[in-house]
């Protein structure tokens, strides 16, 4: 029995997984490709493979190299930190299972964002945009404001779908209009405006959020390629959100010009 | 680089593409269709259009100014995109690319078309059936015009779809799909009308 297990282990160990990883040493240096061949283990994901490279940083030519850098946090596809381009498509590396990927598995950073090192990118642009659109519900006052208005349960259900957004940046990477020639804040952020404007307390500032997406880099930059909704790992109805915000900004635009005042309702 | 006014310019671009430019293109293709009824019918229709009261005002404010804004701002939009149909080969992503390709081609085609007809007219040439028959007798020009007309009908039909989305008329995926079908139908109908008229000049 033990002999058989040893043979099986050897067989498993002799099987390898091939990776091609686009590396970059500093934010300004030139990217280059490096191949790796690592021992196969059952149920591997891209992160466990990267951990193996970190444990034994030797490339496919048998030369010792620096460990590949990447970002990760939750390991269950709710934080968005480990997003990268895997075999040409942006997605989370934690849920990218090696058994389901064509080899060699090609890993690249999401170049829509500034590259920090190897597969690590700086998604600060998105977090700054969240501040711009006021992606929160203001509940603080100088005194106890009491309870807010009730939210219909069925509305809570569809807004819950929008709240699954983890600001991972995959939709921005997929969008042809998010690039260094435009300031487009991206599909995720437009959907967040819909989320916070749908909340009964959040709606008290809805005109401010709409005003923001009617300015520089806002909803006007969307070209309806609808890649975002295809790319979103959480299945968020991004294009429906964008169309809904298109209508909301249309109404806001006419209100601003023809209305008696510019404030909410 | 984006500016604060981009939202309004984009909306204006979307609106002008349909009203008046889209309406004008439809009208133009329909009037061209008189060519299928013979030389005389076409010349009568063309004379009627060319001698409308306030024709200069109509030409500038309904055609040239809106068309120029739509064309030049459109070129700017087309070249700010970083197309990725290789990564996402979906129907909508192809439409996104084709909208930009046809748009840029149409700027070239329409510039040439205006040069060949309106500018020649200003220089004293007679714009009539013979002029078009003469141009289209060249097989290369016929192909150029067919591609031009198909680009225009495609750009208009797909533009109607994005107009419906951009102004927030069609929001749900289902309504957007139905608008897609309607605009595909519009593309087919306008293309048949346009190409039939072109072929009437060569036969």
Automatic annotation (TrEMBL), chain A:
InterPro entries on file: 2Fe-2S_ferredoxin-like_sf, 4Fe4S_Fe-S-bd, 4Fe4S_Fe_S_CS, Beta-grasp_dom_sf, Helical_ferredxn, SDH/FRD_Iron-Sulfur, Succ_DH/fum_Rdtase_Fe-S, Succ_DH/fum_Rdtase_N
Cofactor: [4Fe-4S] cluster; [2Fe-2S] cluster; [3Fe-4S] cluster
Residues of the 4Fe-4S ferredoxin-type domain: 156-184
GO biological process: respiratory electron transport chain; tricarboxylic acid cycle
Keyword field: 2Fe-2S, 3Fe-4S, 4Fe-4S, Iron, Iron-sulfur, Metal-binding, Oxidoreductase, Tricarboxylic acid cycle
Family: Belongs to the succinate dehydrogenase/fumarate reductase iron-sulfur protein family.
Molecular function via GO: 2 iron, 2 sulfur cluster binding; 3 iron, 4 sulfur cluster binding; 4 iron, 4 sulfur cluster binding; electron transfer activity; metal ion binding; succinate dehydrogenase (quinone) activity
Source species: Sporosarcina luteola
Coiled coil: none
Name listed for the protein in its UniProt record: succinate dehydrogenase
UniProt-listed Enzyme Commission number(s): 1.3.5.1
UniProtKB/TrEMBL annotation, chain B:
Keyword Protein biosynthesis: no
TM helices/strands, residue ranges: 12-34, 54-76, 97-115, 135-157, 178-202
Positions contributing to heme binding: 28, 70, 113, 155
Keyword Transferase: no
Any one GO CC term of the record: membrane
InterPro entries: Cytochrome_b-558, SQR/QFR_C/D, Succ_DH_cyt_b558_Firmicute, SuccDH_FuR_B_TM-su
Key words, A-Z: Heme, Iron, Membrane, Metal-binding, Transmembrane, Transmembrane helix
Gene3D superfamilies cross-referenced by the UniProt entry: Fumarate reductase/succinate dehydrogenase, transmembrane subunit
The protein's name in its UniProt record: Succinate dehydrogenase cytochrome b558 subunit
Any one Pfam family match given in the protein's UniProt record, by short name: Sdh_cyt
Species of origin: Sporosarcina luteola
Places the protein is found: Membrane
GO MF term list: metal ion binding
Gene transcribed to yield this protein: sdhC
CDD domains on file: SQR_TypeB_1_TM
Major subcellular location class: membrane
């Amino acid at each position: 029995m033990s002999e058989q297990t040893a043979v099986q282990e050897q067989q498993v160990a002799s099987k390898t997984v091939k990776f091609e990883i686009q590396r970059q040493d500093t934010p300004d240096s030139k990217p280059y490709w490096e191949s790796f061949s690592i021992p196969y283990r059952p149920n591997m994901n891209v992160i466990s493979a990267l951990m193996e490279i970190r444990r034994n940083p030797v490339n496919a030519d048998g030369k010792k190299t620096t460990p590949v850098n990447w970002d990760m946090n939750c390991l269950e596809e709710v934080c968005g930190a480990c997003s990268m381009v895997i075999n040409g498509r942006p997605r989370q590396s934690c849920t990218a299972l090696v058994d389901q990927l064509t080899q060699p598995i090609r890993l690249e950073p999401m170049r829509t964002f500034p590259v920090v090192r190897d597969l690590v990118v700086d998604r600060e642009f998105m977090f700054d945009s969240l501040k711009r659109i006021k992606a929160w519900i203001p509940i603080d006052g100088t005194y106890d404001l009491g309870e807010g208005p009730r939210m219909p349960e069925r509305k809570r259900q569809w807004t819950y779908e929008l709240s699954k957004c983890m600001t991972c940046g995959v939709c921005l990477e997929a969008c042809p209009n998010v690039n260094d020639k435009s300031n487009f804040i991206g599909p995720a952020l437009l959907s967040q405006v819909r989320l916070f404007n749908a909340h009964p307390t959040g709606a008290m500032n809805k005109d401010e959020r709409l005003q923001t997406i009617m300015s520089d880099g806002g909803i006007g930059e969307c070209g309806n390629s609808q890649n975002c909704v295809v790319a979103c790992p959480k299945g968020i109805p991004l294009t429906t959100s964008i169309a809904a915000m298109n209508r909301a900004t249309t109404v806001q635009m006419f209100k601003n010009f023809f209305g008696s005042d510019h404030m909410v309702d | 680089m984006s500016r604060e006014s981009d939202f309004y310019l984009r909306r204006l671009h979307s609106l002008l593409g349909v009203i008046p430019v889209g309406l004008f293109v439809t009208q133009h293709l329909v009037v061209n269709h008189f060519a299928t009824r013979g030389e005389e019918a076409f010349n009568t229709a063309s004379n009627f259009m060319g001698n409308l009261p306030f024709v200069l005002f109509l030409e500038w404010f309904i055609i040239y100014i809106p068309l120029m804004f739509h064309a030049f701002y459109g070129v700017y939009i087309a070249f700010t995109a970083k197309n990725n149909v290789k990564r996402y080969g979906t129907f909508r992503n192809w439409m996104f690319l084709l909208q930009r390709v046809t748009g840029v081609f149409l700027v070239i085609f329409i510039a040439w078309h205006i040069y060949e007809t309106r500018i020649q007219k200003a220089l004293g040439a007679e714009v009539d059936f013979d002029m078009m028959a003469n141009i289209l007798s060249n097989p290369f020009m016929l192909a150029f015009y067919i591609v031009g007309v198909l680009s225009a009908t495609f750009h208009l039909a797909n533009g109607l779809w994005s107009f419906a989305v951009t102004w927030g008329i069609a929001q749900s995926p289902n309504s957007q799909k139905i608008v897609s079908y309607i605009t595909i139908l519009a593309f087919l109908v306008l293309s048949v009308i346009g190409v039939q008229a072109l072929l009437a000049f060569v036969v």
